[in-house]
């Protein structure tokens, strides 16, 4: 789809998608929204689907996000967990913002946990690291660093066994 | 003593000390040197190195295989025993572990909040539906009243129409007075062949004398 075509194309921008706050708990496997196209009490659910569902899917790529339309008298959100249980959230006559804040409280990771995960991720992804699982196998790959002694032996004045030898 | 030889001696000394300190009989918690996991694959620096195949005598190979099979069998039985033991323990402690972890407790708290939210929403919905129902009932009643009014109005109009027609029915042509009506019609000749001038005078037939009516 062309970038600036369709209704509210801002929904497809990376900045918009990254601004989502709903990072679901690890145990949530399926996130389903049931709502209708008509009805005042479905307006919040409709808005949520229109504005926030792309963010939810972007933030949780491992979760299946589905919508069911015209199959319910009142709108609700159902989350299926990995244990086989499900969490039912009634969103009848609630606004998009109310739904979002409640989901954040109930089914999403807390801010502290997210901060911890971010720190762990940051540590893993630090570009200055080298070795296995990193971008660089060895620090000698960086220009200006001392080359690997296996490839290019150090000059004698920098080698301890020669510097400190008695004979 | 050359430098190289000196280095080798020191290395051997250190290795001996290490063995002594961490002898298996002396220390059950043996310190094992960290090794690269095999899953990492070949290091980029050793990528094109071809290792020599080990040359093992046939009888020694046989012995190694025998020992290896024995070892495997023993390890398999120990592993199976541990698995059974673990299963038994897990069955006992699963519930306790689940309750003890903070995450589960946190999730239960979230579910509690959700339960309250659902109850609140359900109560609000009940109120809303009751109000909507009352509104709908009012509308239906008003519509019924309106319909009734319209109907009575229409009935009055029809009544009026019937009365008028009843009055007019005295002039109707029926089977009884049809002959008389025919007679009258034949007696009253009407000629529509006339002309009209600017003043509204009629001229019948070929007559040039104006009259004021068309009959």
UniProtKB/TrEMBL annotation, chain A:
Q: Which UniProt keywords apply?
A: Mitochondrion, Ribonucleoprotein, Ribosomal protein
Mitochondrion listed as a keyword = yes
- Fetch the Gene3D superfamilies from UniProt: Glutaredoxin
Q: Which Pfam families match?
A: L51_S25_CI-B8 (PF05047)
Q: Where in the cell is it found?
A: Mitochondrion
Q: Does the keyword Mitochondrion apply?
A: yes
In this chain the Ribosomal protein/NADH dehydrogenase domain maps to: 37-110
Q: What is its main location?
A: mitochondrion
Q: Which GO terms describe its molecular function?
A: structural constituent of ribosome
Give an example GO cellular component term for this record.
Answer: ribonucleoprotein complex
**Family label:** Belongs to the mitochondrion-specific ribosomal protein mS25 family.
Q: What is this protein called?
A: Small ribosomal subunit protein mS25
Q: Which organism is it from?
A: Cloeon dipterum
UniProtKB/TrEMBL annotation, chain B:
| Keywords of the record | Mitochondrion, Ribonucleoprotein, Ribosomal protein, Transit peptide
Alphabetized Pfam families for the sequence? MRP-S26 (PF14943)
Q: Which InterPro entries match?
A: Ribosomal_mS26 (IPR026140)
Cell location: Mitochondrion
List the GO cellular component terms.
mitochondrial small ribosomal subunit
- What family name appears in the similarity comment? Belongs to the mitochondrion-specific ribosomal protein mS26 family.
What name does UniProt use for this protein?
Small ribosomal subunit protein mS26
Which species is listed as the source? Cloeon dipterum
């Amino acid at each position: 789809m062309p970038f600036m075509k369709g209704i509210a194309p801002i929904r497809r921008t990376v900045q918009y998608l990254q601004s989502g706050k709903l990072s679901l708990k690890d145990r949530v496997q399926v996130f389903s929204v049931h709502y209708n196209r008509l009805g005042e009490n479905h307006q919040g659910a409709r808005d949520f689907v229109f504005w926030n569902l792309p963010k939810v899917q972007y933030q949780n790529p491992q979760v299946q996000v589905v919508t069911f339309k015209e199959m319910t008298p009142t709108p609700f959100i159902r989350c299926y967990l990995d244990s086989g249980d499900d969490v039912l959230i009634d969103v009848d006559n609630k606004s998009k913002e109310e739904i979002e804040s409640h989901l954040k409280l109930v089914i999403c990771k807390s801010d502290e946990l997210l901060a911890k995960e971010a720190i762990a991720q940051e540590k893993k992804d630090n570009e200055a690291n080298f070795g296995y699982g990193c971008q660089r196998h060895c620090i000698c790959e960086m220009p200006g660093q001392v080359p690997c002694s296996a490839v290019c032996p150090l000059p004698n004045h920098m080698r301890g066994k020669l510097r400190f030898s008695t004979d | 003593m050359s430098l190289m030889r000196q280095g080798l001696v020191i290395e051997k000394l250190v290795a001996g000390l290490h063995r002594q300190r961490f002898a298996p009989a002396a220390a059950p918690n043996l310190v094992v040197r960290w090794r690269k996991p095999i899953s990492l694959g070949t290091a980029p620096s050793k990528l094109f190195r071809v290792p020599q195949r080990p040359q093992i005598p046939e009888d020694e190979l046989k012995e190694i295989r025998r020992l290896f099979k024995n070892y495997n069998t023993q390890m398999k039985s120990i592993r199976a025993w541990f698995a059974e033991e673990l299963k038994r323990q897990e069955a006992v402690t699963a519930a306790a572990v689940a309750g003890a972890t903070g995450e589960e407790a946190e999730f239960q708290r979230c579910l509690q909040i959700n339960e309250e939210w659902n109850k609140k929403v359900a109560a609000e919905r009940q109120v809303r539906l009751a109000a909507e129902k009352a509104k709908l009932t009012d509308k239906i009643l008003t519509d019924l009243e309106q319909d009734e009014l319209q109907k009575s109005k229409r009935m009055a109009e029809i009544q009026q129409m019937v009365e008028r027609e009843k009055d007019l029915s005295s002039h109707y042509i029926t089977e009884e007075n049809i002959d008389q009506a025919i007679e009258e019609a034949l007696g009253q000749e009407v000629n529509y062949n006339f002309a009209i001038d600017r003043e509204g005078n009629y001229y019948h037939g070929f007559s040039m004398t104006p009259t004021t009516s068309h009959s």
